[in-house]
Design goal:
outer membrane lipoprotein receptor (LolB), chain A, eleven-stranded antiparallel sheet
Length: 234
């Protein structure tokens, strides 16, 4: 699967529509931009970069900040060496459709770090059994999950000034990445939802913000997309 993606992941452009919502569901901002991945050989630096630019296909756009999180195709590096060998994988059958879907759970032992790196997260791949195509990814930052209760209790018992605790909010992040666009015999990112919540009790969260992104209007190039449109670094 990842070998097939490697032939096309730097050979497309698409439109990204990002939005941020408050806890009550009201939209705080909306931004529409062109989106393109650039491979390392074109930039002269290790890894890959993402370019975003104003695109004529976007009727309106505004500045809309985003939290650090992996780019949608960066999750595929978890299935490639050398990253794959550092993770613990376990297979789980789908409870709803065991003959149609396969759940592949991974756990990362990486310490607290940059949330833009996939190794800072642990989660679940949902893969179509018949086609072998990736359909969905759900993940949480490993450090936030393992320290949830300790951070919640620290805030509850922290010293207070004017009624406010002198300890950071026990924030929990959850990301949901959908791969519902089919092209070139592969599935491609269609939507992302990043949810931020306070850990209110041991088992209950209170959502206070959601960030979303929708990807559409994919265009693929027979030659490298590094020869395609040029934008600016995100």
């Amino acid at each position: 699967m990842t070998r097939s993606y490697s032939a096309w992941e730097f050979r497309f452009v698409c439109i990204e529509e990002a939005a941020r919502f408050k806890g009550d569901g009201r939209e705080a901002c909306h931004r529409c931009r062109g989106y393109q991945r650039i491979e390392a050989s074109a930039t002269g630096v290790p890894g890959s970069e993402v370019l975003r630019w104003s695109d004529p296909a976007c009727e309106q756009s505004e500045r809309c900040g985003r939290d650090d999180a992996p780019e949608p195709l960066d999750w595929l590096t978890l299935l490639r060496d050398p990253v794959r060998s550092t993770l613990l994988f376990s297979e789980e059958p789908s409870p709803d459709a065991p003959d149609r879907a396969l759940f592949l759970r991974w756990a990362s032992a990486a310490p607290q770090g940059d949330l833009a790196r996939v190794t800072a997260w642990s989660g679940l791949f949902e893969i179509d059994r018949e086609s072998g195509l990736l359909r969905r990814i759900e993940a949480v930052p490993t450090w936030e999950k393992t320290t949830r209760e300790a951070r919640r209790m620290r805030r509850q018992t922290a010293f207070r000034v004017l009624g406010f605790p002198l300890a950071p909010r026990p924030v929990m992040r959850t990301i949901d990445v959908r791969f519902e666009i089919s092209a070139k015999g592969l599935s491609w990112p269609s939507a992302i939802r990043l949810r931020k919540a306070d850990a209110v009790t041991r088992d209950e969260d209170h959502s206070f913000e959601e960030q979303t992104a929708v990807y559409h209007s994919y265009r693929f190039f027979e030659s490298s997309a590094n020869e395609g449109p040029r934008g600016s670094k995100d």
